[in-house]
């Protein structure tokens, strides 16, 4: 059987630096766990613009649609700030998301014990936290029509429309339930059914999908404003949170910050299941290209490495190996390995991007 295929798009700024460490980790799994990938690499963002005059070449797009998963670093940087909107680096990423039809965005908020002091919340509230926000990504108020700024009488009015079809709710609900089956089997769906019709429909459809096809899942519903409050009050009550595009945007940033540094946060964006089985998928760290530290060997590669761990779990059905990689990261952090972004008040000497990679590979070796 052919190896699973992976397209690496390292992108700009610290993207290639952190991806270098991911490539070492991928190599380790091929060598030590008999888990080889058919890896190809290409350009995206500013790097693609420099080479081809477009932030995503058509051939790269075609390849992204063929492979089992895409792993992306980061795009953008000051060099490209004055480019026309149509060729800005971010357009490459948006095109990938759109043409791969990635409607389900997964953002875990996981607090490694060694970093619990980084949270703005009390240590006991966040230590051991492991929740996943599933955000609908391609519809809702950011896309609904009518939208715009219109003249109305003698003043202007700004309009956006929250719009969800049953089909759009159905597919993202399934994505959350499938995910929950690999975790604790618990989903909390958040909307504002008390004041929004789209929220009423959301609640109905989510409940129906659960009752029809996922009776094993424990489903609860919560108003999104209460959800925000509960997230900072007692986040460990949640496992999978399912929500729409707008609420998900806010709730996932809020949940992410429970855990501390941007350099630690992975994400996945999933589409419909393909004929091959797993859905189309793009994995990427939440952070950007960090031009302020690019080229200095200071970037924390963990967010990107954890994105690969998500790929192992959700695209390649290798949950045990994903857990092995996450445990290796937990170990190096517990042993005190810190890139500059993770230096707390206690001080110490930060290690480089490559040294963090060395430490994680060492912990992986020790796990055998
Ligand atoms: P950023 O995430 O690049 O950086 C914000 C801050 O966090 C910076 O101080 C940076 O040094 C630090 N940081 C980020 N990742 C880090 C890591 N792995 N290790 C250590 N420190 C890290 O956000 P920004 O500065 O607002 O944006 C910079 C560029 O990235 C812009 O061009 C922006 O458009 C782009 N961007 C891209 C993406 C993406 O590719 N998905 C996301 C956000 C921003």
From TrEMBL:
UniProt keyword NAD, yes or no: yes
Signal sequence residues: none
Residues at which substrate binds: 97, 107, 135, 225
Pathway: Amino-acid biosynthesis; L-leucine biosynthesis; L-leucine from 3-methyl-2-oxobutanoate: step 3/4
Location of this chain's protein in the cell: Cytoplasm
Alphabetical list of InterPro entries matching this protein: IsoCit/isopropylmalate_DH_CS, IsoPropMal-DH-like_dom, Isopropylmalate_DH
Documented EC number(s): 1.1.1.85
Catalysed reactions listed for this entry: (2R,3S)-3-isopropylmalate + NAD(+) = 4-methyl-2-oxopentanoate + CO2 + NADH
Cofactor note: Binds 1 Mg(2+) or Mn(2+) ion per subunit.
Manganese listed as a keyword: yes
GO molecular function: 3-isopropylmalate dehydrogenase activity
Keywords attached to this entry: Amino-acid biosynthesis, Branched-chain amino acid biosynthesis, Cytoplasm, Leucine biosynthesis, Magnesium, Manganese, Metal-binding, NAD, Oxidoreductase
Cofactor: Mn(2+); Mg(2+)
PROSITE patterns: IDH_IMDH
Complexes and interactors: Homodimer.
Similarity annotation: Belongs to the isocitrate and isopropylmalate dehydrogenases family. LeuB type 1 subfamily.
Function: Catalyzes the oxidation of 3-carboxy-2-hydroxy-4-methylpentanoate (3-isopropylmalate) to 3-carboxy-4-methyl-2-oxopentanoate. The product decarboxylates to 4-methyl-2 oxopentanoate.
Protein name: 3-isopropylmalate dehydrogenase
Organism: Roseobacter sinensis
Gene (UniProt): leuB
